[in-house]
Amino acid sequence: MADADPDHPASSEEIERRVPRIGGVMTIFYYDKIAPVIPFYEDLLRFERILDHGWVVVLRIREGCHLALVEGDGGSQAPIAGTNKGATLSIETNDLAAWHDRLLALGADFKGYGLDCGCDGRAIEFHVRDPGGYTVEFLEWIEPPPGSNIKIR
Length: 153
Prior knowledge:
By secondary structure, the chain is of the alpha+beta class. The protein has helices at about 10-15, 40-45, 95-105, and strands spanning about 25-30, 50, 55-60, 65-70, 90, 110, 115-120, 125-130, 135-140. The strands form two sheets. Strands 5, 6, 7, 8 and 9 form a five-stranded mixed sheet that branches. Strand 2 (about 50) and strand 3 (about 55-60) form a beta hairpin. The longest helix has 10 residues, at about 95-105. The protein is globular, with a radius of gyration of 19 Å.
């Protein structure tokens, strides 16, 4: 990125203090085939498809939060076999019981069945697996992390 004034370049201290704006966050999951996974995110979780190029589908979770589903070697990474994918999509909610009831009624693949205590007792959570083996965690904070702006009921 070029300095605003080429005659007076920013010092390294000024550059270090400036933090560029982040417009959003995208998690990327890699699969051998994405077709069997898409209904889980669109129908069960109601994420909105905003881009579809066949080998990659981008879903809006909410404004600024997205999930990309990538097929095969279409992206910069490759699918990992098994259920330990090395990544989890964690969803914060104040409606944990409603999410649990919805996913149970719709036949989601639960990783355990009840609500668990997590984050050193600061949250209640449960986990489901998508059809490709990735874990999706739903959590509701009891006590948000210090310094966070997370709102609890």
